[in-house]
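Hello,

I think I submitted the iron/sulfur cluster job twice by accident. Can you confirm which output corresponds to this input? Input:
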Amino acid sequence: MSNEKEMISLHVDGKEIQAPKGENLLKLLIQHQFKVPYYCYHPGLSVAGACRMCFVEIEGQPKPVISCNTTIAPGMKVNTQSTGLTQIRKWNLAFHLINHPLDCPICDQSGECGLQEYYMKYGRYESDMHEPKVNKRKVVDLGKHVVLDSERCILCSRCVRFFDEVTKTSEMAIFNRGDRSEIGTYADRPLTNNYSLCSVNICPVGALTSKDFRFKKRVWFLKEFKSICPGCSTGCNITMEADIREKRAYRMLPRYNPDINGYWMCDYGAMRYKQVNAEHRLLTPQMKQEGKWTPIEWEDALAFVRKCVASQTVILITPQFTVEEIDHIYAFFMKQPTTPRIFHCVDPQSAFDTTITDELLMRKDLNPNSQGILQVSKKHKLDHQTLEPFQKYIAQNKIETLLVFAPSDLQAYPHFMDWLLPAQPIPNKIVIGTRIELIHSFFNLALPTLSFAEKSGTFINVQGISQNIEAGPKLVDNAKPISEILC
Ligand code: SF4
Ligand code: SF4
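Support: Only one job matched these inputs. Its output is below.
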C-alpha cells in the first residue's frame, strides 16, 4: 500500500491549490502565505477556535467560518479577503483590546506582537469603550524563567494547550468567567518543567515574558542566524539572535524541524546562548609565567605551540567542536613528524543513547557532536582512543606536551579537570577553547577559539542526523578559528 497522501484540489482567492486530503484549512492558508490573521491557532497544538480572527468565506456556506476549525474539501472555493471579513477582523480586534493595557512602549513583545501587527493592518478604529478597563495582575512570578502580565493576555489558551498536550504537565488554566477570566497557574505555583519558555515563545502577545530577555533588548535590533542547540545530543534546531553592533547574543529560539524537535526546545538549551558572550569567554591568548597568567600576542603563543608539539605530544578532543574542526585536528596532527597520540572523550554508549531524560526532548549526553567525533575518529582509525586509554597512556609514557581541545559548555563535563589530573606532571599543557575558566592552574597556555555561534560547520546528533550551523557575528575579536590556529 502506498504511503502517499491523496491530493485534492481547491481554490483560494481564485488560485487553484493542490493539498493532501484532510488538511486543516488555516494551516494550508499559512503555508501558501495567504494573509489571514490568527492568535490561538498553532500548528503544534490542537484547535481551540478561541480568538475568532481567522474567518474566511467559503462558497455555499451561509456565513463566514473560522478557517482553523475547517477541513479542506475537493472543489472548495475559499475567499480570504473581502469588505465583510475586514470588518469582522477589525471589530474582533476591538474586543481583544477592550481590556488590554496601552503599555506597548514598555512591553517586551513590542515589535513581534500580534496585537500591534493586526491593529495596524485591520484595526485603526476609534474605540467606543467608555467603561474603565478591567485591571488584572501584573508581574506575576511564574518560576525560574517566566513572568506573567495577565492583563495583557487575550485568553488564546495556547499556553494552556501547550502544557496540557506537549509537556503533559498541565500547570496553566484560564480561571473565572466573562471579563474576569484570567490566565494563571493553579494556586500560583511556579512552572517547574523544562519547557516553560516555550509558553513565552508561543504567547502571541506580551502576557508571558522571559525573565532572562525581559527589558534587555528591542527585538528590531536583533539579527537571526540558523543554528543547532549545543546543549545535548538531541540537536534541536534553533535561531540564534544577536545584536551585531554590540557583538552580543541575546536569545535562542526554537526552529521547526519535524524530525528532531518539532516547534520546541527546552529551557536548559535556551540558556546556552549565554556562554558565547564576552564575559564568559577567554578573550586573548594567555600564558602562565612565574605562576601568573599574562596576555600574550598570537604570534608568540603559536611559536610556543610549534616548539611544544615538536616533542612527544598527546592530543585530547571534546565533542563540542564541529565535524569539520575535528577532522581538521585529526588530519593535521596525523601528518606531524612526531605523530602525536590523539584521544577523544566520547563514551560511545551515551553517544547512541536516545533515552529522553525530561518531559520531551533532552538526552543524557550533553554534547552536540559525540557522533561526529566518533565518525571522524573512525575515519582516522582512532575511534577506540577514548578517555580510559588516554589516562593509561599518559601514566605509562613520558609525555612532553598535552594539547586539549576543551569543552565550551562545562555542564557536559563537570569533572573534566579531575580527568586531567593524571596529566599534571606533563611540562607543557596547552588548552584551546572558549571559556574564561581555561585560565586554570593546570595549564600553561590558553588559546581562544570561536564559539558555536560564531562559526559554520556540522554537528551530528544522537539519531545520526548531520545538521549545519550558521556563523553569526564574531563576539570575541581576538578568538581564532581552529583552522587558522593549526595553520
Ligand atoms: S498568556 Fe499568552 S498564550 Fe496564554 S492564553 Fe494568554 S495570550 Fe494566550
Ligand atoms: S533538548 Fe537538548 S538540544 Fe534540545 S534545546 Fe534542550 S539542550 Fe538543546
